[in-house]
Amino acid sequence: MTTIAVVSSAALAVLLACGSAQAAGINRAWVSGHGTDAAGCGAPTTPCRSLQYVHDHIIADGGEIDILDPAGYGAIFITKSLSIVNDGVGTAGIQSTSGAPISINVLGAGSTVTLKGLNIDGLGTAVTGIALSAVGKLTISDCLIRHFANDAVDLGPTSTTTLAIIRVTAADNGGDGFHVSPVENGSLTGIVDHSYGIDNGGSGLAVFGANTTGKINVTATNDNFSSNGDGGLVAQGAPGAETVEEVNTIVIAKEDVADYDQIGYDAKIGSVIVFSRSEALIDSLDDTLIESGGFGQSFNNNEFFAVGSMTSDPPH
Hints:
single chain, 316 residues, mainly beta, Pectate Lyase C-like, eleven-stranded parallel sheet, nine-stranded parallel sheet, 2 helices, elongated
């Protein structure tokens, strides 16, 4: 005899909903140094091992990956909205010897990526710590990024991006600590707050709008951009601006420090740096350099002095 199971419409709806949820992924998953990458991992009691496995197989778009314990969690290429959160369990390491251990390419104006509490290390040979080509909103907080051959953070969005860098240290890299350079029609509005871009071969913070038709507005507050091989804070925009109103790259430097660089603050062509209660002391070439086609505006409450120049530009 053949038995035919009869399923009610309500039960069928539940089964279909569960199947769809599994296919779409879960909204929160955990990783651990003691976890295993396998189908069904992700609960606190059965965590996964690597960030990339969770991204590819477990987590839903817009979900959160939480760190359970100190360990190395491998490189990750992010193509969906995602949060990676270490809330203080110890060192959550992401290392690579080539390329970028964290790459972000998430299309869509509403896309978001958050990175918190990560120790990102290039071991002296990887190119860039965090590389971005597209995302609607990026937040990086409480991270240490070091030992990269080029920039610690290299952001080159092709569309509109909102940025927040909070309590991040970018140190001992061959290029810039924080490099912001939208391309094509990319635009960016962001903050860099209570962060350190120090002891890098390039600049502490470099904001470039020369390769985009879009606008760039960055506010840097309570940051330290000292002891870099080039500038502390460097801005450059698209050429052709004859007035401050026409520049496409604006940086506000408020309560920042740029000591012991070659140039503390450098406003190149097509950019303006606005100074308020900021410092540039004992820089080897100049404290502030306002180049041809660039602009500087000051609230006259800054402390500027350079070894290589007895003049301060703009006024204090």
